[in-house]
Amino acid sequence: MAKKILIIDDDEQLRRACHDFLADSGYEVDCAEELEEAQSLLTYIPYSVVVTDLRLSKLAFGGLDVIRHIREQALPARVIVLTAYGWPELKTEASASGVDAFLRKPARLRELGAAVDALMGATA
Amino acid sequence: MTKSILETILDPTTLSVFFQPIFEVRNGIKRVDSVEALIRGPRKTNFYRADILFDYVRRKKAEAAVDQSCFTAVCEAVTALPEDIRVNVNVHAATLGQNSGFVDFFRRCAKRHSLKLDRFTIEIVEHAPSCDASRLTATIAQLRDFGVRIALDDVGLGQSNYRMMLDCDPEYFKLDGYFVRDLNRDPKRRAVVSSLVALAKTLESAVVAEAVGSEEDLAKISELGVDLVQANILCAAMPLEDLQKLGHIEPSPFADVPAESQHGIDRVSCIEKYTESLSVAFGESS
Q: Which of B51, B59, B60 is nearest residue A44 as measured by Cβ atoms?
């Protein structure tokens, strides 16, 4: 069974670029643009890795809610945060919530691929 | 400007309607008793899956608006069904328990599509604990005045409990598949189903068994006194055209007639003329 990835970002171009790159790498990829959509997908679909922005639509730190949801529901998904925010406090809070990797926007797709591969290797 | 997800879902034309027959099974003979209309969200989106669609809707607290959008899509699809087929429609308890004007909307929408209200059964889903019970029962009473029947969905699970049985006084208990699965091999499940069948009988409700998974379970459920069955092993949910191809449903002779009057012809007058012609053929008008 192909390992599944969920990309959460309100930027459609970024979602599409990440989707195509990771799908070409052989992963099964879904995308969500807002918090509730991500929560609904996470309720019904088992993802191995979730890549999320911290800012989602009008929610400044909606990504943190996604991470909390994953941990509260005890979902096995590993989490990569892909964000333009560089605040150390935020990084600390996200790390405390159980983030597995941070990527600073703009990130290269191959950096994302390497982070995903590393976590997928860890979940194998 | 691009539409938001919710705006897209609220457009009934983006929704697809599938139908799954509910069969009456007696002595091994099955006949279609009614159909449940099941919604799929916009194609090529995450919301095509009904579980994800409605989970999202509940998170957005948009049950009432989306139930209206779904009912509009259902009415459009039901116009292609024969007149004598009863139709089950899912409506959230929260929609019925709010002062959302649902009954008025329901009546107007059915009328616009020339559909009789008494052919509908409303399946109450997802009873939220915060739902206003007195408003819920008042709304149900209004719907009953129009001949609408009530079914309680997912009986035995979550909030679909004894209180709801009393508050809603449903004509049908829809028994969740959880209790029916492996019924043949599990005496504890049989005990639960037997007690619910007995309770339904006392409350003058019929029981519908959902998601029966095998012929053995089907035989057992029948033995326990349940005649109404909705299950993929009998027929999965599918678009109406596919149901018609399988021969479960005949096409409506009025399917191509517009609901609303165009050039002096509409579906109601067409049906009336057809009924009249049948009466003449059988000598009832003399």
A: B51
